[in-house]
Amino acid sequence: MIHSLFLINHTGDIFLEKHWKSVIGRSVCDYFFEAREKAVEPENVPPVLQTPHHYLISIYRGKLFFLSVIQTEVPPLFVIEFLHRVADTIQDYFGECSEGVIKDNVVTVYELLEEMLDNGFPLATESNVLKEMIRPPTILRSVVNTLTGASNVGDTLPTGQLSNVPWRRVGVKYTNNEAYFDVIEEIDAILDKSGTTVFAEIQGVIEACVRLTGMPDLTLSFMNPRLLDDVSFHPCVRFKRWESERVLSFIPPDGNFTLMNYHVSSQNLVAIPVYVKQSISFFETGPCGRLDITIGPKQTMGKTVEGLMVTIHMPKAVLSANLTATQGTYTYDLATKVLVWDIGKLNPQKLPNLKGSLTTQAGTPKPEDNPSLNIDLKIQQLAISGLKVSRLDMYGEKYKPFKGVKYLTKAGKFQIYIYMFIFLENLMSYLLFEWLQCVLKHSI
Amino acid sequence: MRNMSTAVLYNDQGGAEAAVEAGQESTPTTSSSGAAFGLFSTDFKKNEDLKEMLESNKESLKLEAMKRVVGLIAKGKNSSELFPAVVKNVASKNIELKKLVYVYLVRYAEEQQDLALLSISTFQRALKDPNQFIRASALRVLSSIRVPIIVPIMMLAIKEAAADLSPYVRKTSAHAIQKLYSLDPEQKEQLIEVIEKLLKDKSTLVAGSVVMAFEEVCPDRIDLIHKNYRKLCNLLVDVEEWGQVVIISMLTRYARTQFTSPWKEGAIFDENNDKTFYESDSEEKKEQTEAKPYIMDPDHRLLLRNTKPLLQSRNTAVVMSVAQLYWHLAPKHEVNIVTKSLVRLLRSHREVQYIVLQNIATMSIQRKGMFEPYMKSFYVRSTDATHIKTLKLEILTNLANEANISTILREFQTYVKSQDKAFAAATIQAIGRCATNISEVTDTCLNGLVLLLSNRDETVVAESVVVIKKLLQTQPTQHSEIIKHMAKLFDNITVPMARASILWLMGEYCERVPKIAPDVLRKMAKTFTAEEDIVKLQTVNLAAKLYLTNSKQTKLLTQYILNLGKYDQNYDIRDRTRFIRQLIVPNEKSGALNKYARRILLAPKPAPVLESAFKDRDRFQLGTLSHSLNVKAAGYQELSDWPAVAPDQSVRNVEVIEPVKEWAPLVGKTKKSKSEDKFYSDDEDEKEEEGSESSGSEDSSSSSSSDEGLFLSLFRDCGGLFRVSLQVTTPSFGPVKTYELLHHMTGKGLSAKYHFPRQPCLYQPSMVAVQVILTNSSDHSLEEIHIGDRSPASLNIHCFNTIERLEPEASVTVSMGIDFSDSTQAANFQLCTKEDQFSVSIQPAVGELLMPSTMTEEDFSKEQGKLLGMNETSATITMATANTSSQAIGKQVLSVANVGVVSSSQNNVHRFAGRTVSSGAVVLVSLEQKESCAALLTINTEKSVMASMLLRDLKQALAQA
C-alpha cells in the first residue's frame, strides 16, 4: 500500500526517506515540488497528486510535509490517517513534531517507522505497543545509555499485539492507581456583525490519563448523555454498551489517550461566552481609517473568561495601526498584516477596548475586503455544553483508584464577520444583493 | 570515481540523490550529476571508519556504527559498500543492533544479492525458534529481502508460518504472501492456497492481513470468500482499524456480486434520478421487481448491521469506508445514517477534509437531501485552504434548492468579497450555476452579477462577465432588461475586459435592444481612440453587427469607426477593420462572401453548460484513490452492477459440525457437489458447467456457483429467460469477452478459451497479456500441456509453464504474453499435450493492441494537434439511441478498445486516449455528438491501418443497441 515515505521541510529539503518495498528515487518528489510551488501557501498543496508512475499523498504538519508514494489503488484516507498517526507518534515520543527533533532522533524515528508498517501495511500503530518495543527517550536514559551502551529498544517483546486488547500491555503495575479525565470543549462559531449566530457547534473531546494496575474494566457514565449528537471512540470502547445504555465501557490503554470525541450541534444549546462590539472603517479622503473594538461577557455560566485574544487579518493596504488598548497588548505584523490583541482575563466590570487609527497606503483605492475577527478564549472548570460526568466504576480489580475529572472550554474556530463601511463614490458594488434588487427594480 | 572527486565538496543533499537513484524513473528535472562525485568521496571516507567500528569486538562501537549507517540510509545516502561488514552482525545478541542490521539488510539486499545469501541461514534457524516474536520477525525480514533465488525458501517458510500456532506469526505470513507475490508472480497458485487456508483463520489478528493479501494477489477469486463471509462480518468490529478498512472495501465488492439490488424501482427516493448510473440494467431490474417483492438477503443485512457501529470509529478511513459501503449497498432510505459521521470528519485534519468533501460532493449531486440539514457545515471559513474552499462551494451549489437558495446566496456574497481572488471567481461561477439550476433566482443572481461588473478587481469582473454571458445565452429573450442595464452601467465601468464583454453582448443581442445599441456605438465612436485594444476590437464587432441589422441608423457611424480602425496603431485592429469592411460593405471585389456576412457574424452561438465538476465521478467507487483523482488508478477494482438474479445463497453456509470436511455438499443436489469441488481445487471451469446447466437452466437460481466465470456462463444460458446481456455483469472498464481457442471436440477433450485481461504484460512491456483457460473435458487426465511450434517463427510469445497434469473436468488458467507488433495478424502456434498437437491461433481485435494512457484534456488537444492530416481518420457515424448517454458511450468504446477516458469539459465531446502496446504510438479517439444520434468519430494516430480498423469496430459497437 504505502511504498515510501519522504519527510520534507518547508524549504523543500528531503531530510528523511524510508522505503518499505523496493527503493524509489527522490526524483519522484519533483512532481510534489512543482505542485508546492504552484500552491504558493504550503496549506494549499493538494493532498493527492498523480505522477506518471506513482501517486503522491501528502500531509502538512508542523511545517513539515509527510509525503508518501503509492503505486496502486488504496483509499486515500487510509494513507492520510496513517501519516497523521506517524506525526502523532513522533509528537508523543519527543514532545513535538519538527525537523530538528526528527533529525536528532533519526534512528529512533527510523525504528518506529520500521515497526509501524510492514510491506506498506500498518502493523503496530498503537502508541502503547510501540513504546513497549522502542522506548521513548528520556534525559536520564540517554545519559545512562551513553555510559553503558544500553539501547532504546525494549528487550521484552510486545505483549499487547497478541491479545484481544492490543492497546494494553499485560502486567501493568502502579503503586498509586489513578484515572484522570479531561473534558475539553471547543466552540466553533460564526457570528455576523450584529452578534447573531450564523453557525455554532461544540466539539468535545475526553482525554484520559489512566495509570491503573492489572486489567481494569472501567465504566464511565454521564448525567446527560443525550446532549451528545455524534460520537467517535477509541477502539477500546464497546460500541454495543454505548448503543444500548449510553455509557462508556472499556479496558483502558495504559497512560494518555483520547477516549472519545463528540459533537453538540443544535444551535440553541451552544452558548456564546462573549460578545464583540466593533467597527472598522476607512475614509475615502486621506489615507486612514478607524478601528474600535470592545469585548464583553455573554453566557459564561458565572465562570471567568481567560486567555482572551483577538486576531484580525487586515486588508493588504493597511500600513500601520496606531491604537490604544485599555487592557492587554496589541501587535501589528506588517508583513502578514495580522493584528493580534492579547487581552488575557476578561473583567466584566471594566470591559477591554481597543481604539485608534489605521494608516493605509496613500494612493491606493480603499480596501474592499472584509476582514474577520478570530477570537481565542479559555474557560476553566466549565464544559460549555453542560456535559457532566456522573460516575466512574471499575471492575476486574480489587484496589480503589483515585479518580478525577476536569473541564475546560476553549474557542475553536470562532469567527466574527465585519462588513466594512467605506465612504465611496462607487457604492454600488458593496451593497447587499437584496438592496440591489430593490434599486434595480426601481431604476429600470 | 574517487579521482573525479577533486572538485569541491558539495553539500550533501544533492549528491546523495543522484547516487541512490540510479535506474529510477525519469523526472522533469534531474539533479546535477556533478555534485554526486564530490559527495560520494565524503561518504566513502566516513565509511572507512564505520567499517572498522563494525568489525570491532565492542558491542557499543558496533551499535554506534549501525546507528550512523541507519542515519545515512534515512538521509538517502549510499552505504552499500558496508554490506559485508554489516551482514556479519546479523546474528548479534543485542536486539537493537540486530534490528538495525535488519533495516540495513532489507534496504540493500536487492543490490547485493550474493552477500545477502550469507544471512539466510540465520533466519532459517530463527524460524524454528520457540519464541513466537523471533519466528515472526525472522519471517518478516526474510520475506522482505528481495532476492529471487530464495523464493523457494520463502515459499516454504510462508507455508509453515501459516500453520503456526501463534496468530502473530500467521499474521506475519499473510504479509509475507504479498511480498513474495510481488517478487515472483509465478507463485500465485501456491500463494492462493495459503490465502485460502488463512482466510479460514478465526483470529482477529490475521483477518485484516489475509484479506489484504487476498486483495493484492487474487481479488477476483470471490469464491474463496463465500465460506468466510459471515465470519468476517462478525469479526469485523474486533479487527484492528487498518484491517477493517481493507475488509470493508473487499466486502463491498463481494456484496455487489452476490446480492440483488435493494434499490427498488420507483421507490420513495430520489430527487435526481439515480437511474442514470445504472441505466443499463434498469430494465432487468424492473422485471425482477415485478416478478417478486424484494426481500433482503439476511447476509446482506448482516453486513450492513455489523458495519454500522464502525461509523463511530476514531479512524477516519474506517468511517469513510463504512460510508461508501452504505452508499453502494444499503437501501436508499438507510444511507442517511452515514451523513452525520461524514460531517464529523470535516472537523479533522485538512487533508481528511479534502477527501471527505470530494466524496460528499459526489454524493450530494445524487442525493441533496442527505446533506441539506448540515448545510452550514459547508460554510467556508477564511482560514480554509483554497482546495477546501472550492470543494465547499461545489457542495453548497449542489445543495441549493428553492427553499435554501436565499441563505446560500447571502453566504456567497461574503465569499465574493474574499481576499482570495481565485476563490471569489469560483464563487461567481457557483452563483451562475445556481442561477441556471433554480429558475426562481435567475433574475436575482443576474442582477447581483451585473453589479459585480463595477468591482475593482479584474478577476471578479472577468468572471462575472463570463457568467452573465453564459446566463444570457441560455435565455436571452427574457433579459433585454439586463442588457439595457448593462448599457447604463457601461459608462461607469472602467475594466477593459468588462467593457469589451458588454459590447459583445450588445452586438450579439442588438436586435433585442434596437434603440440602445446604436447609442452605445455612438458613445464608443467618440471615445474609440482612447480605448484599450480589446475594447476597440469589440467596438468594431458591434459596429459590423449593427450595420447588418440596422444599417439605416448606423451606416455612417460604422464607417467612421472603420476609418478610425484603419489607421489604428495596433495591427490586429487594422487587420480586423479591413476584414470586417470587406465582409459587410458590398463592393465588386468582395464577391460571394458578402452575401453570407449576416450568417457569419450573427450565427447562433451554442450556450455553454454550467454543471458540476463532480458529475461523472460516480463511475468510481467512493473513497477510492481513483475517485479522488477522477482517473482510474492502477489496480482499481471495478464495482460490478447488482446481479439481476441472486447467486445461490447457500454457498455461504458453513458446516459447523464438521470443520474438517470443508467442502461438503450443502443441499442434496448431485450437480452441485461437482461445482463445489471445483472451487476448492483452484480452477475456473466453465465449459463443463455450461454443458450441464444449459440442459436445466430453470434450475439456475439454485446453482451453487458464484465464481465469476461460472456466473457469466450461467447468464449466457439464461439469456432467453431474463434477457441479461453479458455486459451487465462485467465491469464497464474491463469487459471480458472470451474467445474460443480450441474446441473440446477438435482438441480430443482438451478445450481452451482465451481472453484479454487488459493488464500490462508482466513479461515484456511490448507484449499483450492473454489469459488462457484450459479445461480437460475428457475422461482421462491430460499430461504435459505446453506450447509447441509457432508461425511465423519470429513470433515473440512468452509461453506459460508446462502443465504437468490436468485431471478430468479440471481446468486451469494460465497467462501468456504475445507481441503482436501492433498488427492484427493472428498469432499461430501449437498447443501440445503429451500425445497430440493442435494448431490454434489467437487473432486480437485491434482494440486489444492498445493500453490506456491517462492525459489531461490539454495534453490531449496538444497531442491531437501533432497528429493531423495523414494521421487523422474520421467518419460521421450513427449511434443507436441507447448509446447516446455519455455513460453508454464510454462503455461501448471501452468494450471495443482498451483506452483510457480523458475527462472533458464539453458535454458533447468524449475523448479517449491510448498507446499501442508494442511501439507505444499514441492513439486518440474523440467522439463529438451532433444532433440526435449522429456523431463525428475521429481517430488520430500515426498507425493509419489501426485507425481505420478501430474506426470500423467503434462504429459497429456504437450502432448496436
UniProtKB/TrEMBL annotation, chain A:
Keyword Transmembrane helix attributed: yes
Organism field: Sparus aurata
BP GO terms, sorted: intracellular protein transport; vesicle-mediated transport
Primary location class: Golgi
Family: Belongs to the adaptor complexes medium subunit family.
Keyword terms of this UniProt record: Cytoplasmic vesicle, Golgi apparatus, Membrane, Protein transport, Transmembrane, Transmembrane helix, Transport
InterPro entries named among the record's database cross-references: Adaptor_comp_med_subunit, AP2_Mu_C_sf, AP_mu_sigma_su, Clathrin_mu, Clathrin_mu_CS, Longin-like_dom_sf, MHD
Subcellular location field: Golgi apparatus; Cytoplasmic vesicle membrane
Protein name per the record: AP-3 complex subunit mu-1
UniProt GO cellular component terms: clathrin adaptor complex; cytoplasmic vesicle membrane; Golgi apparatus
Keyword Aminoacyl-tRNA synthetase among record annotations: no
Gene3D superfamilies in alphabetical order: 3.30.450.60, Mu homology domain, subdomain B
CDD domains for the chain: AP3_Mu_N (cd14837)
Function text: Part of the AP-3 complex, an adaptor-related complex which is not clathrin-associated. The complex is associated with the Golgi region as well as more peripheral structures. It facilitates the budding of vesicles from the Golgi membrane and may be directly involved in trafficking to lysosomes.
Domain MHD: from-to ranges: 176-417
Automatic annotation (TrEMBL), chain B:
Origin: domain of life: Eukaryota
Pfam families according to UniProt: Adaptin_N, AP3B1_C, AP3B1_C_2
Acidic residues bias locations: 682-692
GO process annotations (BP): intracellular protein transport; vesicle-mediated transport
Major subcellular site: membrane
Gene3D superfamilies, per database record: Leucine-rich Repeat Variant (1.25.10.10)
Annotated Gene Ontology cellular component terms: AP-3 adaptor complex; clathrin adaptor complex; clathrin-coated vesicle membrane; Golgi apparatus
Compartments (UniProt record): Cytoplasmic vesicle, Clathrin-coated vesicle membrane; Golgi apparatus
Segments forming domain AP-3 complex subunit beta C-terminal: 695-825
Keywords tagged on the record: Cytoplasmic vesicle, Golgi apparatus, Membrane, Phosphoprotein, Protein transport, Transport
Biased composition (Low complexity): 693-705
Beta-adaptin appendage C-terminal subdomain domain boundaries: 849-959
PANTHER family xref list: ADAPTOR COMPLEX SUBUNIT BETA FAMILY MEMBER
Family note: Belongs to the adaptor complexes large subunit family.
Protein name according to UniProt: AP-3 complex subunit beta
Gene that specifies this protein: AP3B1
